[in-house]
Design goal:
Radius of gyration: 16 Å
Largest sheet: 6 strands, mixed
Strand order of the largest sheet: 3-6-9-10-11-12
Number of helices: 4
Number of strands: 14
Helix content: 25-40%
Distance between the termini: 49 Å
Shape: globular
């Protein structure tokens, strides 16, 4: 129990000492991500505008940047996805530490930064084990977008890959109809 408590305490301490950084506990390890660059944040702003434009709120959804996702992979594990689409009543699923239970998340999206392997490897497994129906990665390191859907037995099937000039259809399981530009997801709003 001492390890679990000290790991959570260490993550809290890092969060306080490193303003603007994202601190997560993934598979029992603390992961610190530096502040995002401008194009990264432009992509997220554009997503908010797109989900607003198509009426996601009227469909019973909330779309939120930087909301905590409690993970079943360890006693203190949590992630903070760049962008999430959640059920309208997500607040009823608060677990602790401003993190919410996985069952209210319909889609999570990560825009890769300098530690891109966390998003393209570690989080694929953790989000699948959490049962997140759709995981979208704007992989700026490899200049492509990946879409993982429908995890079974804690694993996603192989992803769909999308290249520049294409659009990514938001999966039906999210509850809205929307196509997202690969170029804008990778570069931000031009």
């Amino acid at each position: 129990m001492l390890h679990e408590s000290s790991l959570a305490d260490a993550a809290d301490h890092l969060w306080e000492e490193l303003p603007g950084h994202r601190v997560e506990i993934l598979n029992g390890s603390i992961v610190v991500t530096p502040p995002p660059d401008g194009p990264h944040q432009e992509s997220l702003t554009w997503l908010v505008e797109e989900f607003s434009r198509i009426g996601a709120r009227q469909a019973g959804l909330r779309y939120i940047g930087g909301i905590g996702l409690w993970l079943p992979t360890g006693p203190d594990d949590y992630a903070v996805p760049d962008f999430s689409v959640v059920d309208d009543d997500y607040r009823d699923a608060l677990v602790e530490k401003d993190c919410y239970a996985p069952h209210v998340f319909r889609l999570v999206l990560e825009v890769t930064s300098t530690n891109w392997s966390n998003d393209t490897a570690i989080k694929v497994g953790t989000y699948a084990r959490a049962g997140i129906p759709a995981y979208l990665i704007a992989d700026r390191h490899h200049d492509e977008v990946l879409l993982y859907t429908d995890p079974k037995d804690g694993k996603y099937p192989d992803p769909q890959y999308f290249k520049r000039g294409q659009s990514v259809p938001v999966p039906e399981s999210v509850g809205i109809t929307l196509d997202l530009s690969v170029d804008t997801l990778l570069d931000g709003d031009d």
